Amino acid sequence: MTDLSARHGEDQHAERAGTQRVQRKMAPIVPAQNIAGRALVLVIAIMTFLSCLTFGAVTLVRDTATVWENQISREATIQIKPMEGLDMEAALAQASQIAGEFPGVKSARIVDRDATARLLEPWLGSGLNIDELPVPRLIIVTIDETSPPDFAAMRAAITPKLPSASLDDHRTWVDRLVAMARTTVTIGIAVLALMLAATVLTVVFATRGAMAGNGHIIEVLHFVGAEARFIAREFRHHFLVTGMKGAAAGGAAAVFIFIVFSWWSSRNMATPQADQATALFGNFAIGSAGYLGVVLMVLVIGALTAATSHVTVVTYLSDIDVRQPDAG
Amino acid sequence: MIRFENVGLRYGMGPEILRDISLHIPERSFQFLSGPSGAGKTTLLRLLFMSLKPTRGLITIFGKDRSRISRAELPHLRRRIGVVFQDFRLLDHMTTYENVALPLRVRGREEASYRTDVTELLKWVGLGERMHVLPPVLSGGEKQRAAIARALIEQPEILLADEPTGNVDPPLARRLLRLFIELNRLGTAVVIATHDLGLMEQVDARRMILAGGRLDIYD
């Protein structure tokens, strides 16, 4: 009797424990992670990281190219060569005045004797008296980039009055730099496009690989009466989270690299190496467009993973009823 | 409830696996579907379960012509049919309780609304103590009973069982058979596909024998 009551008590206890366990959170329809799922996260993280780095590099090159273009096209130079009987100072003043009157010219600054001597110092040494040499003199014309002056008209206005003057609007340089910058950016965009295509294909195939292990789940859900949109939703949600996890990790790693470079670049500012690097690549800051691009890429890769799983489920479900059964 | 008229099935350009099958499964009926291995029992069950379409003939399920049932209608009709697969098809990452509750869960029902029903059913099939165990830990017989419970949770009008005693010893086979008979008494039509003659001899029920692609029915 005692034994029976004790057993009854145990049963009740077991039942209570059972009920408590029933109330725990239900297992997800799609299992949380398996090896293929973890590999998918890793693959997505690596591909996102590489894509973001490529995107950052292209942004950097594009920004630097724009800076090159702007800095050079911001100025033009009037050069006056010395001539027999030419009053150089008067000619400089006249040319400067003519240039200054053109709309689109912010200022016209004469490079004075000392500055000209300093310019020539690397070749002719210090203590140079430029009056002893027939040295051409320069006027630097600063231009409003938004509405540049009519250089042909300026040239036509200066040359008749000062035959030894010539206006250099740096067009040749600017054109060459623009062409080079555009080529660099085009190559960068092509590399980025290839990188994105590789990312898309890798993500699609890795997702399909991870989905292959879930065929039996789709089948069971289908046979217990789950609607196709329910099954597709479950998988889409699961793979969206998986894709976002991987993409966010890759994106975060890329942003970390950008920040480290930016910090390194600012820390080494004013050293000869850093100055060279800055002259060539700008200051290693990718700017808000770059960070926005990283965020966008993370979202796109997450969405792509979800879409691939959705398509795989839908294809699987449409095939499920026409596949060969086991003989029985 | 389910009616076949001159149904034939072939895969691709191959020979007909099922030929001129005509049968009627009435409500609350109990029948065995038998025949040698490879005779097409599973294929016939798949036709009954609407996971295959016949290449010829007419199938009427719950008064609807199979050929006119749309893809969107299938899940709703399938909920009226319970299936026990030969290989159980339990999801290994879910407990016995979660596996049995799956058909209700996929319909979007809240767990609180079916918790008692699932627990009661699991006790009825003798799995009250194995509710929170994952399938890999269950024995063959326990898996079989879990699969049966999952097929029954939505109180289907018909239960299709593919070799339900194929993996269990004779005493457990008898126990499972009693379970099916009890279920039939409660109003569910039952079709058991088996080649176990010993099992069929225990019940005086209709026998449908498949051989050479044709079906003979012994009432």
TrEMBL record, chain A:
Entry protein name: Cell division protein FtsX
Region (Disordered): 1-23
InterPro entries (alphabetical): FtsX
GO biological process: cell division
Compositionally biased tracts (Basic and acidic residues): 1-18
Highest rank taxon of the organism: Bacteria
UniProt entry keywords in alphabetical sequence: Cell cycle, Cell division, Membrane, Transmembrane, Transmembrane helix
Species of provenance: Mesorhizobium ventifaucium
Transmembrane segments: 39-61, 185-206, 239-264, 284-307
PANTHER family (UniProt xref): CELL DIVISION PROTEIN FTSX
UniProtKB/TrEMBL annotation, chain B:
Highest taxon of source: Bacteria
Keywords from the UniProt entry: ATP-binding, Cell cycle, Cell division, Cell membrane, Membrane, Nucleotide-binding, Transport
Localization: Cell inner membrane; Cell membrane
Family annotation (Gene3D superfamilies): P-loop containing nucleotide triphosphate hydrolases (3.40.50.300)
Domain ABC transporter, residue spans: 2-217
Membrane topology reported for the UniProt record: Peripheral membrane protein
Biological process terms in GO annotation: cell division
SUPFAM superfamilies: P-loop containing nucleoside triphosphate hydrolases (SSF52540)
Any one of the GO CC terms: plasma membrane
Main location: membrane
InterPro entries, A to Z: AAA+_ATPase, ABC_transporter-like_ATP-bd, ABC_transporter-like_CS, ABC_transpr_LolD-like, Cell_div_FtsE, MacB-like_ATP-bd, P-loop_NTPase
Keyword Transport: yes
Stated family: Belongs to the ABC transporter superfamily.
Subunit comment: Homodimer. Forms a membrane-associated complex with FtsX.
Function noted in UniProt: Part of the ABC transporter FtsEX involved in cellular division. Important for assembly or stability of the septal ring.
Database matches in NCBIfam families: FtsE
Name recorded for this polypeptide: Cell division ATP-binding protein FtsE
Organism: Mesorhizobium kowhaii
